Amino acid sequence: TSNPNTMGGFGACVLPIAAAFTLPPASRRLRIVAAIATMSLLLGIVLSFSKGSWLAAAAAAAVWAFHGLRTGFITRRAMVRTVVVLALLVLLVPSLRRMPGLMLQRWMSHGSTVSNQERLRYIETAVTLILEHPLSGVGLERFGEEYLNTRRLVRGPDDPHNGYLMVAVELGIPALGCLLLFQALVAMSAFVSVREGPAAVAPLYAALSAAMAALLVFQLFSAEPLTARTALVVMALCLTVPGIADHEEVHV
Predict the structure, then answer these.
(1) Helix, strand counts (H, E) of the chain
(2) What pTM, to 2 d.p., does this model score?
(3) What is the pLDDT of residues 162-200, one digit of tens each?
(4) What dihedral do alpha carbons 28, 30, 34, 36 form, nearest 10°?
(5) C-alpha dihedral over 65, 68, 71, 76, to 10 degrees?
(6) Which of 11, 56, 88, 247 could form a disulfide with 217, with the two C-beta atoms 3.0–4.6 Å apart?
(7) Cβ contacts of residue 33 below 8 Å, gap of 6+?
(8) ∠ CA 5-162-15 to the nearest 5 degrees?
């Protein structure tokens, strides 16, 4: 990966998978290792100071919690206890106590404002190019060149920092439709498997569903997931999770 923003975004995708192994039926040793990995990932995401990564991680946490409460591998009491422990850590550890304020400053900083303005220009240019070439796009890996021509600049981004816009601009709206359809099927496969799979592995299935949710959010802020191995592996796992019928056949 090329920068902390991308590392944080992919970390958000992996975070729920690591968290899934902190729960039974994983062995005690594996749960300890998974807990260390989960906390390391969470700390890395926070310290990336990437707003996109924070939103992707929040989406993953929300989806995983939803599945957990619905299927029962997470109780409301456990969730409240976890929130209380994290709040106490933030309050009692000086270095952690500064983090909420620093995160708020990141959202309201001058650098954030400049970044938002740049992304707005990327979106405006991308929309203009999509309207000019709605069916075939401008061509693969041509956004950077077309951006410079449209804006009459000598330097600019290689992509619009948005996976969906990237596909629509370079390959056309039909290609974007295919991408959205494929990713919707992947997300639905992972979501349904949580309900249909055995209860013993529900946390892992829920983690894959949450990882896919994080990936979909992360693509709003980066085009790198389109070709990244992490994204491809997550989607492949979401498509291969077996249902309860498959488990019954194996036991027979």
Answers:
(1) 13, 0
(2) 0.87
(3) 999 999 999 999 999 999 999 999 999 999 888 877 777
(4) 70
(5) -90
(6) 56
(7) 21
(8) 45
